[in-house]
Amino acid sequence: MNAGAMRAEQPDSELYDWGEIEQSLDARGHAVLPRVLRPEQCARLAALYARDDGFRSRIVMARHNFGRGEYKYFAYPLPPLLQRLRQALYPYLAPIANRWNREMGIDAQYPQELSAFLDQCHRAGQTRPTPLILEYGPGDYNCLHQDLYGEHVFPLQVAILLSRPGDDFEGGEFVMTESAPGGQHAEVVPLMQGDAVVFTVNQRPATNRRGGRRKVAMRHGVSVVRSGKRHTVGLIFHDSR
After folding, report:
1. What is the DSSP track for 45-96?
2. pTM over cut 0.85
3. pLDDT tens digit string along 125-166?
4. What are the structural domains, with CATH classification, of the chain?
């Protein structure tokens, strides 16, 4: 990856310990990347939500039983900052995704570059961009869910918190749940403004008590916002139908 593509707009992703990130994804299904965006970048992205241009659709979550709140899908071309970030993170995540698929017996391997993967999506009729921005107000929340949009699904995605916990909003924690034959549990992932969380879209491999491999189903959501406004950007790497 050309690290210089990111350096002017956000921290160099080569500064992150990707071995440690991979270990966290293997063990817990998620990993935090601190300070991916600066405060002024977060504010600039959050301000886009009030605009009508640059988006392909707006979803009111209560109408679809998704929770409360709303979100907008960006149209192509994406904002340059998000386009660079999506392209820069994907090559680090593709080898993890490929290994996971091998371990789970899934016959799908992802190319090293995002453009090649999106070409696969588009040939399958998945041509609509999936990066989005979410807005929550008091009483809003996001039900536990998985973001599956078609035949081609990249097993990892990224959410970046644009707002300041404790200042811009209260509550609204990012939550992940894990379901496996041995039981279920939930985990709150603490995030500060500008932090990103990389997390499992659907399933990840895990080791059972006998040392064999099994699939663990993961879901994510957001707890109830008690006050203020919470904005988040979601970077999904597969496009949708």
Report:
1. HHHGGG-STTEEEEEEGGGGTSEESEEEEEPSSPPHHHHHHHHHHHHHHHHH
2. yes
3. 999 999 999 999 999 999 999 888 878 999 999 999 999 999
4. 4-235 (2.60.120.620)
